[in-house]
Design a protein that fits this description.
The protein has about 325 residues and is an alpha/beta fold. The chain has eleven helices and 14 strands. It folds into two domains: about 120 residues, ornithine cyclodeaminase, domain 1 (2-Layer Sandwich); about 180 residues, Rossmann fold, CATH 3.40.50. The chain is about 35% helix and about 25% strand. Strand 8, helix 5 and strand 9 form a beta-alpha-beta unit. Helix 8 crosses helix 9.
């Protein structure tokens, strides 16, 4: 059995291969039940979340991710997310690999956003605004740069020091990146806005979105969490990673559905339909696109299989 730590998982999940692996999984025979989502009480602090995400390709691989989200970990200088992925044989059930769940989650999440941007962002998109300074922020920059010709990166966060650190890390990788204090000004010029926060109130106002902008929302994974307002929903063509997940869990979709700002039919397509070309995706240079991701277990399975097969190949 392979055990892949954080560094080994990162090395095994090159961006182009990971983006393509996730695309293939969305159009394959993967079985993906809706994930198990449990609130965990933490006395004196914000409640945590326990996620159990099973998925399998019949006869090939079976996997499950166990993930925890502790919002107040920032007070302890710890990541909010910890997790482990267990990959087994789909024929025998034999355990094949234990993969670092935090690194897998961060990379597959960013890769899924990049896959969506491949279909929804303007081909000439050059400016990316990342909102949030957690583990995902640098991954989002790297992943989006795989699919669009980014020239300018802007990073906003509630903590200015953390925003500057993310920008500095991006500069070390060769990006023209800088931290910004004014989220509205940065959002008004951005071609792609990618939000990865634990916000419960909208950060992005729809009135800020310029024609042709692409809005990528990642962080709001519970019904009471929100990263964009109703105006953004109303102005944009709305897409999701999976209807089942987004319509039951994502505040950026659940809340507008409840108030009538969005109808189920107003969701243009889910990611599988974009990848399979059942929906054309962006249809004009002026169209504003809105992609809401809550995470699907098949994305983790795609990454875990790639990590396992890449690591095995490297051992030969």
């Amino acid at each position: 059995m392979l055990v892949l730590d954080e560094a080994q998982t990162r090395e095994a999940l090159a961006w182009p291969a990971l983006i393509d692996a996730i695309a293939s999984m969305f159009t394959g025979t993967c079985v993906t039940p809706v994930r198990h989502h449990h609130e965990v009480e933490v006395p004196g602090e914000a409640a945590a979340t326990l996620l159990l995400m099973p998925s399998w390709v019949p006869g090939q691989y079976t996997g499950v991710k166990v993930l925890t989200v502790y919002p107040d970990n920032a007070k302890r200088s710890l990541p909010a997310i910890f997790g482990t992925y267990l990959l087994s044989s789909g024929k025998t059930g034999e355990m094949l690999a234990v993969v670092d769940g935090g690194e897998l989650t961060a990379r597959r999440t960013a890769a899924t956003s990049a896959l969506a941007a491949r279909h929804l962002a303007r081909p000439d998109a050059e400016e990316l605004l990342v909102c949030g300074t957690g583990r995902l922020s640098l991954n989002l920059i790297e992943a989006h740069a795989q699919v669009r010709p980014l020239k300018r990166i802007r990073v906003w966060g509630r903590n200015a020091g953390n925003a500057e650190k993310t920008a500095a890390d991006a500069r070390a990788l060769g990006f023209d990146a800088k931290a910004v204090a004014d989220i509205e000004t940065a959002a008004r010029t951005a071609d792609i806005i990618s939000c990865a926060t634990l916000s419960q109130a909208p950060l992005i106002c729809g009135d800020w979105l310029k024609p042709g902008a692409h809005l990528d929302l990642i962080g709001g994974f519970k019904p009471d969490m929100r990263e964009a307002d109703d105006t953004a929903v109303a102005r944009a063509s709305v897409f999701v990673d999976t209807r089942a997940g987004a319509m039951s869990e994502a505040g950026d979709i659940v809340q507008p559905l409840k108030t009538g700002v969005l109808t189920p039919g107003g969701i243009r397509a889910e990611l599988r339909e974009l990848v399979a070309k059942e929906h054309p995706g962006r249809q004009s240079t002026e169209e504003i696109t809105f992609f809401k991701s809550v995470g699907a277990a098949l994305e983790d399975l795609a990454g875990a299989i790639l990590a396992y097969e890449s690591a095995r190949s490297g051992q030969k």
